[in-house]
Hints:
This protein has helices at about 10-15, 55-60, 115-120, 130-155, 210-220, 260-280, 280-290, 295-305, 310-320, 340-350, 400-410, 415-420, 435-445, and strands at about 20-35, 35-45, 50-55, 75-80, 90-100, 155-160, 165, 175-180, 205, 225-230, 245-255, 310, 355-360, 375-385, 385-395, 430-435. By secondary structure, the chain is α+β, with helices and mostly antiparallel strands.
Amino acid sequence: xxxxxxxxxxxxxxxxxxxxxxxxxxxxxxxxxxxxxxxxxxxxxxxxxxxxxxxxxxxxxxxxxxxxxxxxxxxxxxxxxxxxxxxxxxxxxxxxxxxxxxxxxxxxxxxxxxxxxxxxxxxxxxxxxxxxxxxxxxxxxxxxxxxxxxxxxxxxxxxxxxxxxxxxxxxxxxxxxxxxxxxxxxxxxxxxxxxxxxxxxxxxxxxxxxxxxxxxxxxxxxxxxxxxxxxxxxxxxxxxxxxxxxxxxxxxxxxxxxxxxxxxxxxxxxxxxxxxxxxxxxxxxxxxxxxxxxxxxxxxxxxxxxxxxxxxxxxxxxxxxxxxxxxxxxxxxxxxxxxxxxxxxxxxxxxxxxxxxxxxxxxxxxxxxxxxxxxxxxxxxxxxxxxxxxxxxxxxxxxxxxxxxxxxxxxxxxxxxxxxxxxxxxxxxxxxxxxxxxxxxxxxxxxxxxxxxxxxxxxxxxxxx
Length: 465
Ligand code: ATP
Ligand code: MN
């Protein structure tokens, strides 16, 4: 056995050091051959491109190649040589081939290319092996890294907020309950209600829908923080933009007002898109070619142009006067639907839009109240093909105003006493927003369904793998 270390195929394809011994391991994408020579296209996940292995038929014996079929995993040691063939710079002349694992052609589902995305969702345990999902998941990784880099370079701290929480940040109905109580034998209080004091945490708990409330506590001590973790919403909306389990990035910044908040969101989005253009070229080029011929142009456009900023009131006026027939009616006070958001972005401004100052009735209790008594300092960032990609606001810092709002909304403030309390001790202006990680990946990859940008999607009636 050779003592050389395994090379990543991405590194070999970029290398100009020919005629050296190399060691590669990967999965066979295709194999074809004749009585003189066999060509194996091998992929190890490091790039969307394959490396060609050239193996002498006589040297190995024709029988040797029979179990090396699409999907098999092999280990090749050979010489990296400049390629004569078109479409590749180098290839490997095989000296030894070891078969790690075969993949029976009768049962291995990924035979020929051209499977539908729907079919690939049913075999989500294998779809990372396809070019498409390899590209998407490499981009996903790069975006996660870029998010940490962006905030770290700005002096923000990664602040870990809890996944199990006793507070309902956004209003009841959409949370997954966490319990260890025996569902077949629930403890009851004297009045017959479920006795949650018997539950694991001594009270009712849920999976978090947002790290924001705890994130604000971090910002009130560390200045600038961000969270980046899983969030859970039991909303029964089967749309191409909603998951029951998704990842969210939530910066929260002391002393930022709504303008600073918009500036941060715009800079952040442009940084991430530029990072993808610079660092995921092959994968984006592949997706551009296969799925969305305008992808690269759209990404470049967003980086180059200022986002349009206007108020919700101005936005609604444009929609009302557009004469466009929407499925959902639009009027001042209505919660905007994706079709409205996309009309503003794609038809009217042809540019990303930041809408601000929404009616307080359709936004959360914690948003800073405007002088008009009707609107709050909310901001949603709307993107082409996506609609809302970011939602955020300047937060209400005044204890009495905040408390009043919770009363107007008939909220039970017991589980969030600490959130109100922080307004009593060195309160300060602060703002933040939430970016849905999968909506970002949808935008960067040009994919149309959110189920295709997370390895194992969780949606109503579906939690396989
Ligand atoms: P929408 O109106 O699209 O349902 P929202 O207003 O409920 O979103 P926020 O509570 O503002 O969303 O959450 C912040 C961000 O998290 C959103 O802008 C979006 O990018 C993302 N997001 C929200 N819900 C989901 C979900 N179910 N699946 C994936 N991403 C989501
Ligand atoms: Mn929102």
